[in-house]
Amino acid sequence: MTTDTVRAAPEGVPMLDVDPFSDELLRDPYGYHARLREAGPVAWIPKYGVYVTGRHQQVRAVFADHESFISSAGVGLANFNKEPPFRPKSLILEADPPNHTRARTILSRILSPRTVTQVRESFAKEADRLLDGVMVSAQRGEVVDGISRIAEVYPLKVFPDAVGLEAQGRENLLLYGDMIFNAFGPRNELLTRSAQKVQPVTAWIMQHCQREMLRSGGFGDQIYQAADAGEISHEEAPMLVRSFLSAGVDTTVNGIGNALWCLATHPEQYATLHADPGLARAAFEESLRYESAVQTFFRTTSRDVELAGVTIPAGSKVLAVLSAANRDERQWPDAGRFDIKRRPTGHMAFGSGIHGCVGQVVARLEGELILGGIARRFKRIELAGEPTRRLNNTLRALGSLPLRLTPA
Ligand code: 8QM
């Protein structure tokens, strides 16, 4: 890949001379997001030779037109039509109709709202168990790390349980997720470092995608049942299980981690939530808008396509900045304000269109149960020290979040 070749902006397209994947901008992207939105509806990033959009209307338009903005050439910076994918392509994420449709149909059935009513009780029990333990620490006056004690633990328990994965070795899912989400960006230090660690983990992941490793009746086994029914081949089944293991943990870990950060840094909002824990779902939703776990996705143009007056030539990479769209003042009044009573319908944290997050009902359930459980137990949630960031090319992630939780 020619990351070193700076390419001049096409005629009439504003240039945005930034590296969105630099440590500096990953650490604090919001100034660059504002510049991105102000530059125009579409801009050009010379360092990578890609188009970029950070306004809500255009991000939405890109996702709505899956025939012009395709996924099968990869949803990261790498163009799979020019270089081989770093792992066999996902059957759902890195696919277009009609292949995408087959995979999507199966996953949306497994992750349907009906399914979620079936797992709700066990997910709720686990949230209570975990937070009762946090309460014991809080009563002793201990500082609790919101990441290692809550945000990482909960999704790593409930989701793999639902998939039907054994308990042993689940921490591999975090390493794997870190690599997957770095791999949507450039081949920078972050990707190199996470790729070095991942070799043995990849073998473990693929092994655990096999039918005999999966509890019968779980989400994973249900994919094999779809293969039995002839909806996909038995060779494709482990690849669809891999999608659960790729997309189902690091996303919710950071969705929950970021939500805890939002609440700890907006005490008046937490007071509102504590007064009415029924707002947990709304609070999670607003934190997804305000501090989106998945920050960006690329698409590749399949043909010359116009976006807000700019003709983007076929074969171009387009960076859609979901998190910038989620704070676009054109869409959200007072976009920079975290307000759990806002109804942030139409936020882009789950994407939108045919590739919109297929697991979002599960993600919302996890967020609701954790935030609701905290709201009921604690009068206050405050930072007890400086949080640290875990930099990732795609995820907005915290490494640690020291919290002081005051029992109600
Ligand atoms: C991101 O492997 C996959 O199918 C896959 C990996 C990552 C994601 C989605 C799907 C969006 C959460």
In short:
The protein has helices at 23-27, 30-39, 56-64, 99-110, 113-139, 146-151, 153-163, 172-182, 189-207, 219-228, 237-247, 250-264, 267-275, 280-290, 322-325, 360-377, and strands spanning 43-45, 50-53, 69-70, 144-145, 296-301, 305-307, 310-312, 317-321, 378-383, 388-389, 398-400, 402-407.
Characterize the structure shown.
With 408 residues, the protein is an alpha+beta fold. It contains 16 helices and 12 strands. The strands form 4 sheets. Strands 1-2-8-5-3 form a 5-stranded mixed β-sheet. A hairpin with a 4-residue loop joins β1 and β2. The radius of gyration is 21 Å and the shape is globular. The N and C termini lie far apart (55 Å). The model has no long low-confidence stretch (mean pLDDT 97). Bound molecules: 4-cyclopropylbenzoic acid. 4-cyclopropylbenzoic acid binds next to α11.
List the helices and strands and how they pair.
Elements: H1 23-27, H2 30-39, E1 43-45, E2 50-53, H3 56-64, E3 69-70, H4 99-110, H5 113-139, E4 144-145, H6 146-151, H7 153-163, H8 172-182, H9 189-207, H10 219-228, H11 237-247, H12 250-264, H13 267-275, H14 280-290, E5 296-301, E6 305-307, E7 310-312, E8 317-321, H15 322-325, H16 360-377, E9 378-383, E10 388-389, E11 398-400, E12 402-407
Parallel strand pairs: 2-8
Antiparallel strand pairs: 1-2, 3-5, 4-12, 5-8, 6-7, 9-12, 10-11
Helix pairs in contact: 5-7, 5-16, 8-9, 10-11, 12-14, 12-16, 13-16, 14-16
The structure holds 4-cyclopropylbenzoic acid (8QM).
